[in-house]
Specification:
Helix content is 51%, strand content 15%. The chain is α/β, with parallel strands linked by helices and 208 residues long. The strands form two sheets. A five-stranded parallel sheet has the order 2-6-1-7-8. Strands 3-4-5 form a three-stranded antiparallel sheet, with helices on one face. Strand 4 and strand 5 form a beta hairpin. The radius of gyration is 16 Å and the shape is globular. The structure holds cytidine-5'-monophosphate (C5P).
């Protein structure tokens, strides 16, 4: 199951919940780009290829160090969007992402899951939400984690990051032609998960 969409469209939470309901593995592909950014090397292509990453019980480790909280920083996201423009970084991360596809199945979320990484996914979903709703959600998410945030600056950052993700030459943010689009602006997390699980049932996806 491929779930794509712009920043703060709800992909992360939705993917976790859908994967749990289906009994599938889950891939947060944005974390890989954030990890490359966090590592902060002069040769991000090489970092993307060789960095030592582990996903364990909802925590993310870089060279055995728990970096889960550091990864959520908006400054890291902005740098991630910058390294994500580099074709060599994307190629290096391609195999890493595809390695997550294991039985009984995978829910993968990001920007190019349906278009580039898993073009043969059995279900492709593209989540959208109005810029105002997305900024509000990200603001709340950061505040809940005790991270200081400014709504105005956040909206501006999200807008710039999405514009850059959509305009880049390689694997731009875009729905696959066969993706089902879902506007989450006025839907709760439960409702969005419910709609996607309905689509999964129609396709007989999931062991549960
Ligand atoms: O999803 P998240 O906000 O963590 O992603 C951070 C950045 O990583 C995005 O703004 C985007 O530039 C990049 N990214 C990408 N392709 C993906 C996932 C994330 O280019 N599949």
């Amino acid at each position: 199951v491929a779930i794509d969409g712009p920043s703060a469209s709800g992909k992360g939470a939705v993917a976790v919940r859908v994967s749990q309901a289906l009994g599938f593995h889950c891939l947060d592909s944005g974390a890989l780009y954030r990890l490359v950014a966090l590592a902060g090397s002069d040769t991000p292509e090489r970092t993307a290829e060789t960095m030592q990453v582990e996903f364990l019980d909802g925590r993310i480790f870089l060279s055995q160090q728990d970096v889960t909280d550091a990864l959520r920083d908006e400054a890291v996201a902005t740098r991630a969007s910058d390294v994500a423009r580099r074709p060599g970084v994307r190629t290096a991360l391609l195999q890493r992402q595809r390695a997550f596809r294991k039985p009984p199945g995978l829910v993968a979320e990001g920007r190019d899951m349906g278009t580039v990484v898993f073009p043969d996914a059995e279900l492709k979903v593209f989540l959208t939400a109005t810029p105002a709703v997305r900024a509000q959600r990200r603001y709340k998410q950061l505040k809940d984690k005790g991270i200081d945030a400014n709504l105005h600056a956040l909206s501006r950052d999200l807008e710039q990051r999405d514009a850059r993700d959509a305009a880049r030459a390689v694997a731009p943010l875009a729905p696959a032609p066969d993706a089902l689009q879902l506007d989450t602006s006025e839907r709760s997390l439960d409702e969005v998960v419910g709609v996607i699980l309905g689509w999964c049932r129609e396709r007989k996806l999931g062991g549960r």
